[in-house]
Amino acid sequence: MMFTQILDFILQYSTTFIIVFLLASIVLFAGIVEKKSRPSPVGLTIIVLALAGTAVGYIFPDLKLFNISIFLPIVGLAFLCSLVNLFLYLYYNHKFYQKLRLLAASNNASGHKIYAYLDPNARLINFTDDFADFLGIEKNNFKNFEELISSILVDSQDMNIRVFIHYLKNLEERDYRVAITLYTGMTVKMNLMKRKVIANGRLLGFILMHQGGFSAAEAALNPDYEYYLNLLDDAVCYFDSKAKKYILTKQMASLLNINDTQINENSFLSAVVGEDLNVLSNRNITQTGQKLFYRLNTTRGPIWFEENNIDYEGQVYVLIHRTDFFRQRRGFRNRQQLLDTIKVIYERNNWLALFALEISSMKKIREAIGKEASEVVLYNFFTKMIGDLKLDNLKIYQLEEYIFAFIVDDRNQYQEFLSCLENSTEILTKVKVDFYHLNFDLLNNFGVIPSEVAEDSRPETILNDAIEALTYSKDIKYPKSYYLYTQKQDVGFDFKDYGIDLSDNFLDDILKK
Hints:
Layout: H1 2-12, H2 14-36, H3 41-59, E1 64-65, E2 68-69, H4 71-105, E3 114-118, E4 124-127, H5 129-135, H6 142-148, E5 149-154, E6 157-159, H7 161-167, E7 174-182, E8 187-199, E9 202-210, H8 216-220, H9 225-231, E10 236-240, E11 245-248, H10 250-255, E12 262-264, H11 265-269, H12 277-281, E13 291-298, E14 301-312, E15 315-322, H13 335-349, E16 353-359, H14 362-369, H15 371-389, E17 397-398, E18 403-408, H16 411-423, H17 425-428, E19 430-435, E20 438-450, H18 459-473, E21 482-484, H19 505-512
Parallel strand pairs: 20-21
Antiparallel strand pairs: 1-2, 3-4, 3-9, 5-6, 5-7, 7-8, 8-9, 10-11, 10-15, 11-12, 13-14, 14-15, 16-18, 16-20, 17-18, 19-20
Helix pairs in contact: 2-3, 2-4, 3-4, 14-15
């Protein structure tokens, strides 16, 4: 009797219960998003189910399940939805404040840069913006780290980033000497320290720190600068604006083939590559935050250096150090990733267009400015092309040293590309690209294939046809810088129908005689 009365009460006020439970669920879900920075799939799914059930109930109010009004299970679903989101909110709220306490307690990290935060069980919470900046990742999310990092060598074991994170999952403090290999082919070596963070006798978690010595900037600003600069074991120097002298490390002096570690302005300028002298003649050494790039003639040939102005206690120091343009370079996806993407897009759209391009002038550019600098030119070119064509999501794949590819899966964009190839050569085929104070003309050839004219729909076939079209576009007799692949025609001619034997069977008959 009591149970029946409860059911009748729920049905009588079912609309109120549904509204209250759903509003509570939505408010709790918003709180989860605030704490977690992204929606919880479980919470979102059950809210969608509850809303869908409510919609069904009001569209078909007389509907019954097992002779029970549809509104009773809807109220139950709404109640379950609020309970699940309440549990998730409490869980993520706990995690949020746990991370907050860890961040607050790890502020005294002795000047070391923190690259990752781990929970009390040594499970990764997140990588830091400092680590993302170090690797040149613009947006700090785990997917970007996975796409950039090819492998990590630690304790003589080669592993991917997910295995490395699992490798960190022990409750011991320890140091790691790691070599991170990126998909760009670059390898970065560093020493990392995993340390406990304890507050009021309680383990809050771990931090993964960069175990670096003095940075170049710290060394230059130290009163015993010459001593500390030499501790860097690198080719570094700085310009003392008061003394009007350049102070060099021993490695820098050796690289420039100079005996003295203190030289005047003219001696330093004599080492600058002539093409780059204008950079220094126009600089303002009193302006902080200024960043310049130029080459110095060294015993190893021209090498790029980066110059930064630093203000320390009212005096401006000009710090100069070697650069490989690590932060300005970006890696490209590889051939296998291209084939995998072709397969996925074709299965989804049943159509795509593949563009293969070769930057024929890139070899001369690399010879002129070096491998690392030429990779920045490549990145600048693709950034300019993507910006001019307003295709922010375009992915670039590197097939060979100077051969690249990209996919267009929208027919309208495909037609725009073809129009640009035909009419706007300055965007795609004859492009001017700036590289700081230098500028270059990039001459490009394109091979284009829409999937409907490929030999078949296999990714390897589509790619091979695009490369074949690219080969045709480079023929000196061909008037255009791009070639649109056309389907090969079956001429329908069979030699056997005309009594022509292309085999060598007749030789056997002759030899038998």
